[in-house]
């Protein structure tokens, strides 16, 4: 009996059996195609037996198999301009922050009302910019916004971009900024439109081609004295995030094929370029389009998140000491929560950005012995912030460091949702989990009692610093050196330092 004569229910069972691949599908970043776990081509010969069977099987392989994406080295890893896409984005961001501190006179009340209406969290920031002179405007936190100003990083960038789109309509703003940049050692060409810089807003998850990189560079001012920091950074190998690759792959499929996909797993094994913590935003349109889509983003805690921060520290110290590379030491415990904060806030912000509820989850992964110590630090920091929110002395802040956000400027405060988020993680009720980790809820009153003799935020912060005066390192046999060596380029283009 031919397949076409069998009942449809039985044919569907056969289709499911023939397309269920042991190990699912894996994206081959070199060929841009899906493969089996062993790297073989996917067997779909049954679909080609006749048109009717092909029509009945359309979408079945994607329904029955999870599609896996993993980080991959840039295909042009030996091209510094490509490797430094992240660096260009960071420069663009810093330029906008430099401008933001001087934009106050051009932020009219009408502009302020429009920005606050679109971004209610920006009210404190806008008020601060309007009422404080540039030389007194405290810049800390303006670059990411996740702490003092109540934003997740990408939403903060959205608010700044919207603000500049309005302010830049005033020609006087462009002239004033050209002067400010010149005083800061940065020059624009005579024929270069300064205002075009503020309408330029590349998406971090969109991997650029050579032309797009060149366009970015043309928007940027030149430096009278190029920084050796750039050359230090040219030695770092950047990876393309799994989320970025997934977004590009999905965009090339037809809508009916995309709608048949049920599960995506993103394996973020390496530190990636261009604010990778926000790259899951690229998948929001696909999750809206396909309500049955489930996305799991798996993050390597040590090889990705913590390694990325340690690489930046290594680059910075190499720059200020005019050395090619620093001996890699251990990481300060006080930087752990701050390093994780962008990933946590971005995951929390996805639903408000349009991600359907329960469509996305994020898992931090690693070896058991190395995961729990980091999670313990995170829980303890959350408990301290929880207690801080109850402490009457949190508003006692010296005028010298007051920025309009009071105690939220201090190192012992991270972001508003941190205590609630950690409780959700401990109880397993949120979208974020830490593998091999467990924790206990805390009593904030115990921390308040322990710090009863603190008289100001400076006292409280010093107590927290003493608590964090230690180092963290991966579990043996791993070391920071073995973890980070994969990120160091030794090609000819990186030997100019």
What does this 3D model show about the protein?
With 497 residues, the protein is an alpha/beta fold. It folds into two domains: 66-76 and 236-484, no CATH class; 85-233, no CATH class. Helix content is 44%, strand content 9%. It has 21 helices and 13 strands. The protein has helices spanning 8-19, 51-57, 60-64, 80-83, 85-100, 109-118, 123-131, 153-167, 171-183, 210-219, 228-233, 242-251, 255-259, 284-289, 301-320, 336-349, 368-390, 418-427, 444-450, 457-467, 480-484, and strands at residues 25-28, 33-36, 67-70, 72-73, 186-187, 222-223, 239-240, 263-268, 294-300, 331-332, 360-365, 432-434, 471-472. The strands form four sheets. The chain has a seven-stranded mixed β-sheet with strand order 2-1-3-8-9-11-12. It has a two-stranded antiparallel ribbon with strand order 4-7. A hairpin with a 4-residue loop joins strand 1 (25-28) and strand 2 (33-36). Helix 17 (368-390) crosses helix 18. The N and C termini lie far apart (73 Å).
């Amino acid at each position: 009996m031919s397949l076409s004569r069998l009942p449809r229910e039985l044919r569907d069972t056969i289709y499911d059996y023939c397309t269920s691949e042991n190990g699912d599908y894996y994206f081959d970043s070199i060929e841009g195609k899906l493969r089996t776990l062993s790297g073989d081509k996917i067997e779909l010969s049954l679909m080609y037996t006749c048109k009717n069977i092909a029509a009945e099987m359309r979408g079945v392989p994607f329904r029955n198999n999870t599609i896996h994406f993993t980080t991959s080295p840039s295909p042009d890893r030996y091209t510094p301009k490509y490797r430094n896409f992240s660096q260009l984005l960071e420069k663009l961001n810093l330029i906008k922050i430099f401008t933001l501190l001087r934009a106050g006179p051009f932020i009219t009340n009408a502009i302020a009302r429009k920005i606050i209406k679109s971004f209610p969290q920006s009210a404190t920031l806008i008020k601060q910019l309007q009422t404080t002179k540039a030389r007194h405007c405290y810049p800390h936190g303006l670059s990411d916004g996740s702490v003092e100003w109540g934003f997740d990083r990408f939403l903060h960038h959205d608010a700044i971009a919207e603000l500049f789109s309005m302010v830049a309509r005033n020609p006087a703003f462009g002239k004033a900024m050209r002067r400010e940049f010149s005083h800061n050692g940065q020059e624009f060409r005579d024929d270069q439109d300064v205002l075009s810089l503020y309408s330029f807003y590349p998406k971090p998850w969109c991997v650029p081609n050579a032309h797009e990189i060149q366009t970015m560079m043309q928007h940027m001012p030149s430096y009278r004295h190029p920084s050796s920091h750039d050359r230090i950074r040219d030695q770092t190998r950047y990876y393309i995030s799994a989320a970025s690759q997934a977004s590009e792959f999905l965009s090339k499929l037809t809508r009916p094929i995309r709608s048949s996909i049920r599960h995506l797993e993103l394996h973020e094994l390496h530190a990636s370029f261009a604010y990778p913590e926000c790259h899951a935003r690229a998948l929001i349109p696909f999750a809206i389009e396909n309500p049955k889509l489930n996305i799991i983003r798996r993050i390597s805690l040590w090889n990705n998140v913590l390694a990325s921060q340690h690489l930046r520290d290594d680059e910075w110290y190499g720059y200020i000491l005019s050395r090619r590379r620093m001996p890699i030491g251990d990481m300060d415990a006080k930087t752990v929560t701050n390093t994780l904060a962008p990933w946590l806030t971005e995951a929390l912000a996805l639903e408000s950005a349009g991600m359907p509820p329960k469509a996305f989850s994020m898992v931090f992964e690693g070896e058991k012995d190395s995961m729990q110590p980091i999670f313990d630090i995170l829980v303890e920091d959350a408990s301290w912030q929880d207690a801080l929110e109850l402490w009457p002395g949190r508003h006692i802040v010296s005028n010298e460091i007051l920025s309009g956000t009071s105690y939220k400027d201090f190192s012992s405060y991270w972001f508003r949702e941190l205590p609630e988020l950690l409780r959700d993680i401990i109880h397993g009720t949120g979208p974020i989990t830490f593998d091999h980790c467990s924790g206990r809820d805390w009593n904030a009153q115990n921390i308040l009692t322990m710090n009863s003799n603190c008289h100001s935020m400076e006292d409280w912060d010093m107590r927290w610093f003493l608590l964090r005066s230690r180092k963290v390192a991966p579990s043996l046999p791993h070391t920071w050196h073995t973890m980070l060596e994969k990120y160091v380029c030794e090609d000819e283009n990186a030997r100019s330092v």
